[in-house]
Amino acid sequence: MDLSQKYTINTEKLSWRVIDDEVVILNLDSGNYYDLNAVGARIWNAITKKKSLGEIIEALKEEYQVDGKRLENDLKKILLDLEKEQLIKK
Known about the structure:
Layout lengths: L7 E2 L4 E6 L2 E6 L5 E4 L1 H11 L4 H12 L3 H17 L3 E2 L1
Antiparallel strand pairs: 1-5, 2-3, 3-4
Helix pairs in contact: 2-3
């Protein structure tokens, strides 16, 4: 995983809102609806702020006291899912 990699939100296809500690996303092309929990919302927020993967990992490690390797693997899965659903792009 390239820790300097940055993703962007696919703004042409999406509408989203932050509600409490969650993010609700609507894909305007497909009509699919997504709901990100508090951790997913933190990742989404970091992407909107153009944070690199390394910066996201460090912030989450500090906040959740999780092993770095496990966190990196979990983050990779989440990002692949978001990318597959065309919610984010490189």
